[in-house]
Specification:
heterodimer; A: mainly alpha; 86% helix; B: mainly alpha; 79% helix
Chain lengths: 219, 222
Amino acid sequence: MNLAEQIKHLIKKELLLEWRSKYALNGVLLYVVSTVFVCFLSFVSTDKVTLNALFWIIMLFASINAVSKSFLQESRGRQVYIYTIASPLALIISKTIYNALLMMVLTVIALGFYILVFDFGPEDLGLYMVAALLGSLSFSTIFTMVSAIASKAGNGGMLMAILSFPIIIPVLVVLIKLTKNAMDGLDRSVSLDEIGLLLIINALVMSVSVLLFPYLWRD
Amino acid sequence: MSMYKNWWKVLGAILVIYSTVAGFLMKTPELPIIRESIRNLYFHVPMWFSMIILFSISVFYSIKSLRSNDPADDIKAVESVNAGVIFGLLGIVTGAIWAKFTWGQAWSFDVKQNFAAIAILLYFAYLVLRNAIDEEQRRAKISAIYNIFAFPIMVVLLFVLPRLSDSLHPGNGGNPGFNAYDLDSRMRMVFYPACLGWILIGCWIYNLLYRLRDLERNKLSK
């Protein structure tokens, strides 16, 4: 089986597993919704800049929970089984694509709910959506690889947070800046730098992951 | 014989002594606000250069250790990170002292200060990751992978992001760079030797740390 076909089958497997249990989607959705409510009840009045930062912090924790599932919660037996039938390259690419899809769906739903609850309307909703999609892509590329590292180190959740936070901070800073531009309705040409930088970081992270994952997987 | 092998250590020591003495005694341009604290340039900036060189050495040996599975390469990678972190912390401390005098606050929430601190957190995470794994070979492999993964992010943190926003540092966010007006030829005569000297001293510290660990390892295996 060639690489593209393997990736297709692995993504299908992930989607099927998710569809059967609907655990990640429902669980993380509930997590986001309840966090938004907690924030709504605790913040009496907030300005837009704080609301924007708050949205990304909620999404940061939601995506850590959603994406860390990909390697941390897979049983040893299943990992060995997949190792025997698929190439490590196909595995990391399919996991990243699947996580990106999951995160994009989650982010869009969460954004809709957030706008509904907080009456938080960005001036340039189109650009905000682009930023949200880029953000979910970045979260999934970075967290997928870090969760693979953390799962191999055998010390789940705690390591996942320590290892991923310093890596995600640059992405988060650029995202918050980009979404602030979208909120203020600045001309889109102003934000091209940030969009380009996010794409470059993603390409960088993805290529390093693809290069390194085969070494990590071999055990 | 040993002189031929160790000339760079002697050179490093001489350059650091020269730059320290000359840095405090030689004349500097008289500028408002920054005044005599301009001499910190000879100490603050070389710390960052040394740190980046040491982290690059570490990434080099991490790549090598992935290919060779040689424990010596793994020790080289971690000891250069250890030495690099010392220089990073010294860079932050010298920067904070400088900021206190010129910007008014030791921690001025300048982008470069923040991102440099985060870059060092990245390497603390690397060291914590190493402590979390008991088995030696697994530790070598997994931490090498994290080290290589983190390196491009460090480059983004230190070299790309500060350029996108306003910084109090010279040469960022529309501020003129140091060399534009006050790094005159007298200062260059101290600054360049200082950078080279501290980089050599950094490599020497890394060398000593590595040899110490290597001796301990050989003693354990006997």
